[in-house]
């Protein structure tokens, strides 16, 4: 594939539609720092280039005032996708091991949880996956690539990868 201009914008738009599966007019939440490549790429550029609402979250996922900050935001704006670091999920799990915050909010709009920035340990992925009842997509990329390189969206029996 050759892109003579707008390469970063093109890949951000493509990943919003085909990897994160967020369509124009839908709300998306990326709980990242704007200074990190994930932040400016998937809080600012990608959602806006894709015609989506971007939910900007500032602060920690716990202690603001409790471990339900992300779930309140998803419920309030009807986010269809949430991108968070495994560290954030581990902090939420430590503060709310029974996942009561999940059950206290209407998260029916949420179709998938995307995690990256570090490996998501299986106990954390299983805990949040059970609590939310949606796919937890652990994907990998680098600052230099500017977008995901690999990650499974659908569970494919017999897939190599």
Structural class: alpha/beta
Helix content: 25-40%
Average of pLDDT = 85
As a percent range, the share of strand residues is 5-15%
Order of SSEs: HEHEHEHHEHE
Largest beta-sheet details: 5 strands, parallel
Could you give the count of β-strands? Answer: 5
Query: What gap, in angstroms, lies between the N and C termini?
Result: 23 Å
Low-confidence stretches: 157-161
Number of alpha- plus pi-helical segments: 6
Order of the strands making up the biggest sheet: 2-1-3-4-5
Shape: globular
Pfam family, one: AMP-binding
Domain AMP-dependent synthetase/ligase: 10-150
InterPro entries: AMP-dep_synth/lig_dom (IPR000873), ANL_N_sf (IPR042099)
Protein name: AMP-dependent synthetase/ligase domain-containing protein
Task: Please name the defining characteristics of this protein.
5-stranded parallel beta sheet, 13% strand, alpha/beta, 161 residues, single chain, 6 helices
Layout of strands and helices, then pairs:
Blueprint: H1 7-19, E1 27-31, H2 37-49, E2 53-55, H3 69-77, E3 79-84, H4 86-95, H5 100-103, E4 112-115, H6 122-132, E5 136-138
Parallel strand pairs: 1-2, 1-3, 3-4, 4-5
Overview of this structure, please?
This is AMP-dependent synthetase/ligase domain-containing protein. Residues 10-150 form the AMP-dependent synthetase/ligase domain. The two termini are 23 Å apart. The protein has helices spanning 7-19, 37-49, 69-77, 86-95, 100-103, 122-132; strands at residues 27-31, 53-55, 79-84, 112-115, 136-138. Helix 4 crosses helix 6. 31% of the residues are buried. The radius of gyration is 15 Å and the shape is globular. With 161 residues, it is α/β, with parallel strands linked by helices. A 5-stranded parallel β-sheet has the order 2-1-3-4-5, with helices on both faces. The chain has a domain at 98-105 and 120-139.
């Amino acid at each position: 594939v050759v892109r003579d201009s707008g390469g970063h914008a093109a890949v951000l738009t493509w990943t919003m539609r085909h990897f994160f599966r967020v369509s124009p007019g839908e709300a998306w939440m990326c709980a990242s720092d704007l200074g990190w490549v994930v932040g400016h790429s998937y809080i600012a550029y990608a959602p806006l280039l894709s015609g989506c609402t971007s939910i900007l979250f500032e602060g920690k996922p716990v202690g603001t005032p409790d471990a339900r900050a992300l779930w309140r935001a998803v419920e309030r704006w009807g986010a269809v996708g949430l991108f968070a670091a495994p560290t954030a999920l581990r902090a939420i799990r430590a503060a709310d091991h029974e996942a009561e915050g999940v059950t206290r909010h209407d998260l029916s709009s949420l179709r998938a949880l995307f995690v990256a920035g570090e490996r998501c340990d299986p106990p954390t992925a299983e805990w949040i996956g059970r609590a939310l009842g949606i796919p937890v997509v652990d994907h990998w990329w680098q600052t230099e690539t500017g977008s995901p390189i690999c990650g499974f969206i659908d569970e494919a029996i017999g897939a190599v990868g």
